[in-house]
Amino acid sequence: MHVLVLGAGQLARMMALAGAPLNIKLSAFDVGTGNIVHPLTQALLGHGLDNAIEQADVITAEFEHIPHDVLDICEKSGKFLPSTEAIKAGGDRRLEKALLDRAQVANARYYVINSREDFAAAIDHVGLPMVLKSTLGGYDGKGQWRLKADSDVEAIWLEMAACIAETPNQAIVAEEFVPFDREVSLVGARGKSGEIEVYPLAENVHTNGVLSLSTAIVDTELQQQAKAMFTAVAEELNYVGVLALEFFDVQGKLLVNEIAPRVHNSGHWTQQGAETCQFENHLRAVCGMPLGGTALIRPTSMVNILGEDALPQSVLSQHACHIHWYGKDKRPGRKMGHINVCADNLEALSQELVKLADQLDETAFPAVRENALKLS
Ligand code: ATP
Ligand code: MG
């Protein structure tokens, strides 16, 4: 099997690593340059979407901000999975919110803003405080505003109007501010014959709007709620592949924040902590193979490496730690790699995370120690 991935970043790289034992060959299409590259070495393999499509048995994607003309060409080839509708919904908060409503899953009250009049109507409909998000192009908390008081309306409107004017078809989605207790996500896979396997939920910690730490959690009641919502969304889309749902946990009741129609950063822990990792399961699904088991093998956390390209050698000596570099050039805040930390029980995981935190620069890894202590 030859799978073409739209996008040539770390997710395509980790899919290539996971596909090799199953003899699944991957190439990556860099949507920006039109180059076909090897997902591990970035070596140039060819150029042009038509060539890339021609060589592939299956086409999939590692991100959702893909021009619709590219998606439409892939769709016409009949090779694209999960579905171009799913990728479009992941890349446009208007479509995403409409999808969540169609699937009848709980999500924050919202209103779509195209004009100053809409903004006033949004304030009436949603109320303050609210979170405002650009509908296109947002990731890692970028393109967002928080409106807390009426006195800030005009200043925020100026910024939002500039954002709307900058990109064709741009709009803003106003959402009620959700006073959540924590954020969790569910990563799961749906196969070609409709079978669904989900991983245990992950509890996620964000630092400055970017995921810094994810820990697999066992919570039967929340897991059931999350799986029901996952199933509703996946079935609504007739989805094939790995899908992630991000949730707010508000006193034990889950609201969907957003979806990611792909393998997800909060599922990287599955490489060491689950029977089959999310990357392998995505490939199994899109290649029409049976899904692998998603059970938790052992308590596991994932620590994101942001803006750093080196770690102390001592981290390699800590047997609980498994380092995954992405081979990228260093830039401030950039996702450069992650460390999966495993242990036999939560108490031991907490101790291993503290041991890891002792070796790391506290400013570059602010969430590790504080959250490790909450685990035990
Ligand atoms: P990412 O790509 O990292 O998932 P994003 O840019 O797509 O981020 P969101 O996930 O929608 O954006 O929001 C980023 C973070 O902002 C959330 O993880 C959450 O902490 C906070 N947030 C978003 N929406 C709300 C809301 N309605 N109420 C309260 N907090 C929110
Ligand atoms: Mg998010």
Question: What does this protein look like?
Answer:
The protein is of the alpha+beta class and 376 residues long. It has three domains: 2-80, Rossmann fold, CATH 3.40.50.20; 109-176, Dna Ligase, domain 1; 182-375, D-amino Acid Aminotransferase, Chain A, domain 1 (2-Layer Sandwich). The chain has 13 helices and 18 strands. It has helices at residues 10-19, 49-55, 68-77, 84-91, 93-102, 116-126, 153-166, 220-236, 270-273, 278-286, 313-317, 346-359, 367-375; strands at 2-6, 25-30, 35-37, 44-47, 58-61, 110-113, 130-134, 144-147, 172-176, 182-190, 196-198, 202-207, 210-216, 241-250, 253-260, 300-306, 321-325, 335-342. Strands 10, 11, 12, 13, 14, 15, 16, 17 and 18 form a nine-stranded antiparallel sheet that branches. It has a five-stranded mixed sheet with strand order 4-3-2-1-5, sandwiched between helices. A hairpin with a 2-residue loop joins strand 14 and strand 15 (253-260). Helix 1 packs across helix 10 (278-286), helix 4 (84-91) crosses helix 5 (93-102) and helix 12 packs antiparallel against helix 13 (367-375). It starts with a strand and ends with a helix. The mean pLDDT is 97. Residues 246, 257-258 line the site of magnesium ion. Homodimer. Pfam families: ATP-grasp (PF02222), PurK_C (PF17769), RS_preATP-grasp-like (PF22660). One of its GO terms (biological process) is 'de novo' IMP biosynthetic process. It is an enzyme of class 6 (ligase). One of its GO terms (molecular function) is ATP binding.
